[in-house]
Amino acid sequence: MVECATITVLIAFFVVTIITYWLLEFHYFMRILFCYLHSRFVKKKLDILDTSMYSSVCLTTDIDILLFHMNNARYLREVDFARTDFYNRTGLWQKIREKGGLVYQGGTSIRYRRFIRLFSLYHITSRIVYWDQNSIYMEHRFITKRDNFVRAIVYGKQKVIKCNVEEVITELMKTPATKKATEVRQKPECPSEIRLWIESTNVSSNKLRENVV
């Protein structure tokens, strides 16, 4: 009876695992959870204008049909982990939630420069390059460790609702996590590539509005 019960439990566990993987990309959610816990409770804190670094490796689950380099779509998924790391280590996520706000992805621009080959070690640097009242603009660089070459650059626009981004980041700049409180930090000028990207998205939005019947 004990053996039958054990076999039944194992079969049930196996079936539930298969169904879970079929319905959800289970390892993605587990990585997000691990990244959240590791960045929140293990890795050192960063100031809001610092650059974070998230390390990873190109595995067989990341490659495309050519079977030797990272799938283009995987870059954006990896940015999810890097962004989670940055938001937690700088306290940005906690500050936004403290004010009752929410964040969602408003746009992404990516430039691929060279392949990230199978089993290559790389890291993603993340930093805020600009912000306004409603959005945060971030830059993510994929850099291979063996040659320190920037393989891809991603710009992301995170829309923040129900709170003012200017207030959130100003408060975080006034309460530095690592630097001396007397250090003067200012809002950076909008980089030319971000300014042109904003103009491009505005043109696209206007055209879409014109086509609405």
Structural write-up:
This protein has 213 residues and is α+β, with helices and mostly antiparallel strands. It has 2 domains: 42 residues; 158 residues, Thiol Ester Dehydrase, Chain A, CATH 3.10.129. Helix content is 44%, strand content 24%. A hairpin with a 3-residue loop joins strand 3 and strand 4. Helix 2 packs parallel to helix 3. The radius of gyration is 21 Å and the shape is globular. The protein starts with a helix and ends with a helix.
Which descriptors would you attach to this protein?
213 residues; alpha+beta; 2 domains; 5 strands; 44% helix
Explain briefly what this protein structure is.
The chain is 44% helix and 24% strand. The chain has 213 residues and is of the alpha+beta class. It has two domains: 1-42; 44-201, Thiol Ester Dehydrase, Chain A.
